[in-house]
Design brief:
Blueprint lengths: L10 H19 L5 H19 L4 H8 L7 H8 L1 E5 L12 E8 L2 E8 L5 H6 L7 H16 L4 E7 L6 H5 L2 H13 L5 E10 H5 L6 E5 L3 E3 L3 H8 L6 H8 L3 H6 L5 E3 L10 H19 L4 H13 L13
Length: about 325
């Protein structure tokens, strides 16, 4: 059994889990029955996890969203979809492996599914550029979405990126144009789009896959115009203030739901999606089914108008007229 990775604020849980593992080892090596003690400690660990996760700060939620064991796009594709056939390349430059996508079936319904993939080990992370997409990745995603439109297939996107790749090669190939083109085209795509933020939803790298009809967020995911570290570097000239930036940015699911930017928050298992990926898949599959049913039967003009009104509703302001008399 693989050893669990605990975050810094989970140290009390880690200590309890370590004791439980020691007792289980003793149980297998000894004739003494200590199953009652193990059960009591397991319940205590479960309750401690609930207590800690009930009072998480935005910065702690950011750490959970970045957890290396968190399920990625391909995990959800394997668990929620059937008959997946991956498609490659943007037909212009290359195949960006930070974006995965292809034809599949969701509850028996043909669809297009795509999203960012970070990678598990060092080799795969390098190959997938840590989920930071280059222009060819966004152009591949757009090619797949236009293909879905051609065959009247709904589109499911999964967002998990710290942001678009900021390298000079990406800029030379038109990074901002590729992101802007995706946003423009998705706004008028003539098929339903359901987007789920499964981990990090960072900057334009996330926006390029998240113009949609239904936006879902996992409970411990984040969605923001900039990372807390990036924000802190701009405002305070140091990334050490990232915790303060996370508080100010309003990046958590519940905050964004209150602002009307998110349609549904998908609850995660106790301790986060990485603690029970099967349960997470079950919860998300139900939520995606509900979201799809809300838009599946809309006629194209109604779908486009609904999406336009949705985008226009973002942001609120109060107009105060000063009396200059």
């Amino acid at each position: 059994m693989a050893k669990k990775a605990f975050l810094d604020f989970e140290n009390p849980i880690a200590e309890l889990e370590s004791k439980i593992e020691e007792l289980r080892y003793v149980q297998t090596e000894s004739a003494v029955d200590i199953s009652d003690e193990i059960d009591q400690l397991s319940k205590k660990s479960q309750q401690l996890t609930k207590d800690i996760y009930a009072t998480l700060s935005p910065w702690q939620i950011t750490k959970i969203a970045r957890h290396p064991e968190r399920p990625y796009t391909l995990d959800y594709v394997q668990g929620l979809f059937t008959d997946f056939v991956e498609m490659h390349g943007d037909r212009h430059f290359a195949d960006d492996k930070s974006i995965v996508g292809g034809l599949a079936r969701f509850n028996g319904h043909a669809c297009m599914v795509l999203g960012q993939q970070k990678g598990r080990d060092t080799k795969e992370r390098t190959q997938r550029n840590f989920g930071m997409t280059r222009p060819e990745g966004y152009r591949k995603a757009l090619r797949l979405m236009k293909l879905a439109e051609k065959f009247r297939l709904p589109v499911f996107t999964f967002v998990d990126t710290p942001g678009a790749f900021p390298g000079i090669d990406a800029e030379e190939r038109g990074q901002s144009e590729a992101i802007g083109r995706n946003i423009y085209e998705m706004a008028q795509l003539e098929v339903p789009i359901i987007t789920t933020i499964i981990g990090e939803g960072g900057s334009g790298g996330a926006l390029a896959l998240s113009v949609c009809d239904q936006l879902l967020m996992l409970q411990y995911s984040i969605y923001s115009v900039i990372s807390p570290e990036g924000c802190a570097s701009i405002l305070w000239k140091t990334s050490d203030k990232a915790q303060d930036a996370a508080e100010a940015l309003g990046i958590t699911a519940h905050r964004l739901k209150a602002l009307g930017l998110v349609d549904k928050i998908v609850n995660e298992p106790v301790g986060g999606a990485h603690r029970d990926s099967k349960q997470m898949q079950s919860l998300l599959k139900r939520a995606l089914g509900d979201a799809f049913r809300q838009v599946a039967d809309l006629k194209t003009p109604d779908l486009i108008n609904r999406r336009y009104e949705r985008l226009q509703s973002y942001g609120r302001f109060t107009d105060t007229k000063a009396d200059h008399r």
